[in-house]
Amino acid sequence: MPVILASMSVPLLGVGLLLILVALTYKQLRGYFKNWVIMKPIQAVSCTYPFIGNALELKTDAVEFFQQIQEYAEVFRNTPLIKLWLGMVPFVILFHAETVEPIVSNPIHMDKSLMYNFLHPWLGTGLLTSTGSKWRQRRKMLTPTFHFTILQDFLEVMNEQAEVLVNKLASQAGRGSFNCFNYITLCALDIICETAMGKNIYAQSNSESEYVQSVYKMSDFISRRQRAPWFWPDFTYKYFGEGNLHDSTLKMLHSFTYEVIRERAESLKLEDESETRKRRAFLDMLLKTKDEDGNPMSHQDIQEEVDTFMFRGHDTTAAAMNWALHLLGSHPDVHHKVQRELQEVFGTSERVASMDDLKQLKYLECVIKEALRLYPSVPFFARTIREDTKINGFTVPSGTNALIMTYSLHRDPRYFPEPEEFRPERFLSENLAGRPPYAYIPFSAGLRNCIGQRFAIMEEKVVLSSILRKFNVKTSQSREELSPTAGLILRPECGIWIQLEKRDKAQTMLLI
Fold it and tell me: How far apart (Å, rounded) are the C-alpha atoms in residues 366 and 213?
C-alpha cells in the first residue's frame, strides 16, 4: 500500500505544479490584458505586437539606442506622454514638466523601476536602489554626512587632485588636439576614492589599475543588459550572455571595497586611541553612524553605500565637466566671461580655491547648470508607478514603469527658447521667474533628489576653475561629432577633443 501511495504522489505532484504554473500564468496574463486595455488611449511609439511589444525594435547599440529614444521625444514633442512595451512590461515615456511632476513629487511613486534591479548585485539596496522604510531611514542617517562643514574637508582633496590634473594637462598644452575625457574622469575618480573611502588609488598616475577598469566594465555590463530583455532572467544572462564576466568583475569590486572598509575601521580604532585626527572621509562617518535606536550600520550596509558613492560619485561629475569643457571651448564669448570672473575673484594670486571663492563664482555655476541642461549626466531615469495615476488626463495603471527623459525635458522650448543654444544666462536669478521647478531636474527631484548634488557642483567649480585659470580651451569637435551615448550616464562616443594653450601672466596668474 505505501508503495502504491508513493507512486501516486509523483503524478499528483506534477499536476499540482502544473496547476500553480497555470494559476500564475493566468494572473500574469490577466494583468497584462487589463493594462493593455487601460493604456490603449496613450500614443504608442510604433506598432506594438502582443506579448513582444516594441522589444525587437529597440537598438542594442548604445549610441543608436539613445538616438532612438531621443527621436521618439522629438516626433511626439506635442504629445503629453507616449508608451512602449518591453515584452509584457509597460513603460510610459515622460518629457514635459507637467507630466513628470505627478510622478517625482509623489512619495507613492518613489520606487525605482525594475531596470535598477540589475544594479543590486553590485550596489545591494543602498540609497540609490532601496525603497520604503529602508530608504527613508538610510536617507535620514546619511544626510548629515553632506553638511557644509564636512564639504569643507572635502575641498582640500578636490584642490589637491585638481592640481595633479592641471599638471597632467600641461604636457598637452600647445601640442594640438587631444582627448581630455580620460584625464578628467581619472581626476574625478581620485577625488571620490579619497573623499568616500579615505584611500588614494592614484588613478591619475595609474589609469590601468584593476579597480579603475572594473568600475568601467561593470557600468557597461549593466547598461547593455538593461537594453536586452532576453538577458533579464539570470539564467539566460549567465549561460548565454556576459554573466560570468559580470560575476568575476563584481568579485573584484566587492573585494576591493571590503578590504578598504576593514582597513579604515582598524585605522579609526587606532586614531581614537591616539586621539589624533586624520582627514575625514565619507566611510569614517558611516563607521560611526547610528540609527534611531543607537545601532551602528552593518558591514554590508556600509559596503552598499560606499559602492553606491563610488559608482555615482565619479562618472556623473566627470561627464558633466567634460561636456562643460566642450561647450566652453566652442563658445569663446562664454569662455571669456568665465575667465574674467576668475580674474575678479582670484586676481594674480596662486592660491587654491576656498569656499568663499566658490560662492563668488556665480557665472561659472550658470555655465555648469546650462551644460547639465544640454547634457545631463543621467539622461533618463525610471520609477515604478505604485497606484493607478492620472497623467495629463490619461490613466496609467499601477505597476507601469515611468521613464523620465531628462535630456528631452531640458529641451522644452516653452521654458528654454532655442533649446539647442548654449546660454548660461538662462540660470541668472533674474531669468528664472516663471520656469516650473520640474522643467529642469539634472539631479532628479522630489524626495529622491541626489543627496550629493552640492558635492558635485562644488567639485565641478574647483576642477573647471583650476583648468581655466591655467589654460585657454578650444574645442576640436562640432556638436554633430559628439555622438552622445547613453549607458548608465551620458558620454560622447569618441571622447571630448580639445586644444589647450597656456595663459601668460598678462592674462592671469599661473597655477603651480
Answer: 33
Cα 461 off chain centre by: 19
**Which residue from 116, 130, 112, 489 is spatially nearest to 305, judged by alpha carbons?**
130
Name the nearest CA neighbour of 314 among 479, 438, 192.
Answer: 192
pLDDT: which is higher, 510 or 218:
218
**191-200, 270-279, 497-506: lowest mean pLDDT where?**
270-279
Q: Which tens digit of pLDDT belongs to each residue from 215-267? A: 888 988 998 888 888 898 999 999 999 999 999 999 999 998 888 888 888 87
Q: 138: Cβ–Cβ under 8 A, 6 or more apart, which residues?
A: 126, 127, 130, 301, 305
Q: What is the mean pLDDT of residues 311-323?
A: 91
Q: Angle CA(383)–CA(60)–CA(440) in degrees, nearest 5? A: 40
Q: Which three cell numbers stand for residue 313?
A: 560619485
Grid coordinates in use for 509? 596668474
C-alpha cell of residue 279 = 582627514
206 confidence band (pLDDT: 50, 70, 90): confident
| The three grid cell numbers given for residue 294, joined into one nine-digit string | 543607537
Domains present along the chain, CATH in parentheses: 55-502 (1.10.630.10)
How far apart (Å, rounded) are the C-alpha atoms in residues 467 and 37? 56
> Helices in 51-147 by DSSP H: which ranges?
62-75, 97-104, 120-123, 132-142
Question: Which grid cell is 97?
Answer: 514638466
Q: How many Å apart are CA 296 and CA 276, to the nearest integer? A: 22
Length of the chain measured in residues: 512
Distance separating alpha carbons of residues 38 and 388, to the nearest angstrom: 10
Task: Please determine, for residue 207, whether its predicted confidence score (pLDDT) is greater than 70.
Answer: yes
